[in-house]
Amino acid sequence: MATLSNDILYASLNQLSVGIIIIDEQQRLVFFNQWVSDYAGKSLAENQGKYLGLVFNKYQDSRLSDACESALTLGLPARLSNTFNPTPLPLYQKNALGDETALIQQQISVKKIAVESASPLCQIVIDNVTHTVKKEQTLQKLADENKLQQQKAEVANRSKSEFLANMSHEIRTPINGVLGMLTLLADTELSKNQRHFSKLARVSAETLLHLINDILDFSKIEAGKLEIEKIVFNLPDCIVETVQAMAIKAQHQGLEVIIDTTALTEGLVVGDPSRLKQIMTNLLSNAIKFTDKGEISITVTAQEDSSAGVKLVVVIADTGIGIPATKCSGLFHAFTQADASTTRKYGGTGLGLTIVKQLCQLMGGNIKVNSQLGQGSQFTFHLSLGKSGQSIKPYQGFSEQPILLIDGNEKSGLSISKQLQLWGLNVVMKTATDAAIIMGDEIVNNDFSVIILDSNLGKVALDHIANLLRKNNKLGSKTVPIIMLTSMAHSCTETNSMLLTLDHAGNTYQLAKPISAAMFYQVLTSAFASENRKSAQGDLPVSPAKEQPKNNINKQARILLVEDNRINQEVALGLLRMMGHSADVAINGVHALELILQRQFSQPYQLVLMDCQMPKMDGYQATKTIRSDEAYQHVNQVSIIAMTANTMSGDQQKCLDSGMNDYLAKPINPQLLAEKVAFWLAKA
Q1: Looking at the predicted structure, is the pLDDT value of residue 181 above 50?
Q2: Half-sphere exposure of 529 toward its Cβ, with a 13 Å CA cutoff?
Q3: Where would I find the Histidine kinase domain in this sequence (predicted)?
Q4: Which of 584, 586, 666, 570 minimizes the C-alpha distance to 619?
Q5: Sign of torsion, CA 315 388 304 384?
Q6: Which residues of 358-375 are buried (b: 16+ CB within 10 A; e: fewer)?
Q7: Given a cut of 50, is residue 489 above it in pLDDT?
Q8: What beta strand segments (E) does 601-671 contain?
Q9: Within 13 Å and on the Cβ side, how many CA atoms surround 18?
Q10: Among 443, 540, 568, 564, which residue's Cα sits nearest to residue 178?
C-alpha cells in the first residue's frame, strides 16, 4: 500500500483546477500551486518567502489582505465574491484567439490552517468564475432586453387599443347618421322608385356596418382585447332565435331551414350568448349566401364535458356550391376565401370564418369543415359552456296519440317526427312525393288526434286535403286540430285560402318554420286541449313578436338629448318624433348641466339620452356631476341612457360605473331605442 508523501501532495495540489496560496503569520508566501503560476505568470521558486504584497500588486491594504489578517489572528474565515472585491489579484487569462489577456473574475475563500507545534498558516483558494459571470451578464442583458421589448409591446398594445376605440367611435358615428336618416326617410311619403332606392341604400349601409364590425372584431382579437362574457342564459332559446332570425332571408330565397334540437338536453348554461349568436349568424349567413336551392340544416347536441361543464356541438350543413377539398384547410386564415372570384360575386372580407374560429377557441372549442365542390358544405363547431345549477321545467310527455304529419321536405319531416316521438306521440309521416290520394287515404282511414300540414306542399295537394277534411264525416263528431306549418317570411293565408275556411270549425293553428321546440309544445298543448273549442286562426302567431313599446306613458315626456354631432341630433330627434316624443338638445356635457340646472325645480327632465365622447365635457363626467354634485340634488336620480359609438370591451360597464342607467350602441336600433325609452319613462 502506497503512503502519502510530500511529492504526492505537491503533485495533487498542482493538478487542481483552482488556485491555492499559503502564507505564514507575516503574510509571507509559503506556497502557490501551478494554477496560480499559470495565471500570474510567476514561479514559486523566485517568490517563496516574500511578502505577498511584493508578489502581487495592490494586495496591501486590500480586502483580501484584511481577510487574511482576520483569519491568522482571529481564526475568522472569509469569502470574497467577484462583485464585492474591488482589488482582485493580478491573475490573467488569454482570449480565444490567444492575442490578448484579461483579468479573470475571481471568487476567493480565506481560511486559517492550524498546524500543531508550528505557527499558524493561512490558505487562500481562488476560483475562476469568469465564464459564470459572463453567462450571468448575458442572461441579465437578455432579461433587460426582454423587459424593454415587453414595455414596448405594452405601449404598442395601449396605442393599438386607443386606436381601435377611436376608430370604432369615428366610424360608427357617421354610420349611425346614415342608417338613422334612412330609417326616417322610409317613414315619409316616397314614390315606388324612391322607396326602392332607399331600401337599397339601407342594405348597402348595413353591409358596410357588417364589414366594419368584422374588421373591428378581428383587430380586437389580434390585440387581445376581445373578452368573453360568462353569464347565465337560455341555450335553446338563444339558438332557435338566431336560426329563426336568419331563416327569413333563407326562405325568401326558397330555401328550407331545418333545426334539430332533440339532443339538446341542457337549458340554462353559463357562457357568452352574444358570441354564440355571432358564430351561428356568420355560419348561417355564409350558408344562405352560397346556397341557391335546397336546404340548410342545423343539428345541435350537448354532451356533459365534466361535472361543471357542457360541450355544445353545432353542425350547420347546406346544399350549396361547396368548397374544393384542397381549399378547406385555408378557409380559416385571415382574408382568405375559397376562390378570388368569390369576393367579386358574393362580397365579404374573408375575415368572417377567421373570427368564428378564434371565437370558438376563446370559448374553449374549435371548428372544422367538410365539403366537396358542388355537394354542399358542413361546418361543425363545439364550445365549452358551464352548468348554471339552474333548471328549466322539462316538457311533459303526451299520451300515445296518433299524429299525421305531411311535410313538403323529407328531412324537415324526419326532424319534426323525431321531436314528436320524443314527446311520446305516434307519428305517421308523409311527404310531397306521396300521391295526394294516398295522403287522403291516411286522413280517411285513421283517427288522428292532430294533423300537421306544411304550407309548402303546393296548392293542388293542400286543396285536396282541405276538401277531404271538410267532407270527412268524422268531422261531424270530432274536430281534428290542424297545425299549419308556415315560413317565417309568409303567412298561411298567402299559401292556401281554401284550407283556412276550416276556421269555422275552430281547429286551425299556425306554427312557423324553422320550428322552436318550446313553441311547438305550446301549440300541441293548445290543440289537444281545445279539440271541441272554437279557436280562430292566429291563436298563435307565425313567429313570436316582441311586444311593441306602449306609447301612452307620457306623450309630453320631458327628454334631454345630449349629442354634439348635428346629424346624429337629427336622427335621434326624428326617432323620438316617431314615438310621439320631442326633446331638448345639449351639444356637450357643460351645456347639459346648464339645462338640467335651469329646469330642476320647474318641469325637470324625466330622461336623458347621453352621448359619451363630446368636447368640453364628456358624458361620463356630466353623469358623475349629476349624481354627486349637491347643486343637482333634486334631479340626481334622473334616468340616463348612454347612446354612444364607444363599443369596445368595457365601454358599457364604464357607462354604468359613471352612474348611467342603461346603454345603447350606435348605430342606434330604432326598436331597441323605443323599448328603452318606454321602459325608463315608465319608471320616471
Answers
A1: yes
A2: 6
A3: 166-387
A4: 586
A5: positive
A6: bbbeebbbebebebeeee
A7: yes
A8: 607-610, 639-644, 662-665
A9: 12
A10: 568
Closest to 251 measured CA to CA, from 548, 672, 545, 543: 543
**Could you give the CA distance from residue 545 to residue 289 in angstroms, rounded to a whole number?**
26
Q: What does the pLDDT look like over 521-549, one tens digit per residue?
A: 988 888 887 654 543 344 433 333 334 44
C-alpha cell at 83: 462583485
Q: Which of 256-270, 428-442, 558-572 has the lowest mean pLDDT?
A: 428-442
Quote the pLDDT of residue 97: 58
Site of grid cell 347565465: 232
- Dihedrals φ, ψ of 559, to 5°? -120, 140
CA distance 133 to 125: 18
The CA distance from 525 to 506, in Å, is 15
For the ranges 94-103, 469-478, 607-616, the one whose mean pLDDT is highest: 607-616
Scan for cell 293553428, then name that residue. 509
pLDDT at 117 over 70: no
pLDDT of 69 higher than 90:
yes
Q: Under 8 Å CB-to-CB from 365, ≥6 apart: which residues?
A: 311, 312, 381, 382, 383, 384
The three grid cell numbers given for residue 582, joined into one nine-digit string = 320631442
pLDDT at 498 over 50: no
What dihedral angle (degrees, nearest 10) is formed by the CA atoms of 187, 192, 198, 204? 140
Among 676, 673, 680, residue whose Cα is nearest residue 571: 673
Confidence of residue 65 (pLDDT cuts 50, 70, 90): very high
Q: Which three cell numbers stand for residue 6?
A: 510530500
Per DSSP, the residues of 350-419 read S-HHHHHHHHHHHTT-EEEEEE-TTS-EEEEEEEEEEE-S--PPPPPPPPS-EEEEEESSHHHHHHHHHH
Closest CA to 19 of 72, 61, 56: 56
pLDDT > 60? residue 32:
yes
Closest CA relative to residue 282, chosen from 314, 330, 255: 314
670-683 helix and 566-578 helix, angle to the nearest 10 degrees: 70
- The CB-side HSE value for 334 (13 A sphere, CA atoms) comes to 9
Sequence-distant (≥ 6) Cβ neighbours of residue 548 within 8 angstroms: 674
pLDDT of residue 165: 66
The CA distance from 327 to 373, in Å, is: 10
Eight-class DSSP state of 310:
E
In the prediction, which pLDDT does 335 show?
52
DSSP category for residue 274? H
Looking at residue 561, its amino acid is L
* Model confidence band, residue 505 (pLDDT cutoffs 50, 70, 90): very low
Q: Could you tell me which residues are beta bridge partners of residue 353?
A: none
Q: Which three cell numbers stand for residue 482?
A: 290542424
Q: Is the pTM of this model over 0.85?
A: no
Note the pLDDT of residue 385. 93
3-state secondary structure at position 651: helix
d(CA 334, CA 339): 14
The pLDDT-based confidence of 54 (bands split at 50, 70, 90) is very high
List pLDDT tens digits, range 127-162.
Answer: 999 888 889 889 999 999 999 998 888 787 777 666
Q: Are strands 402-407 and 426-431 parallel, antiparallel or unpaired?
A: parallel
Q: Select from 341, 445, 383, 410 the least CA-distant residue to 233.
A: 383
The span from the CA of 612 to the CA of 632, in Å, is: 20
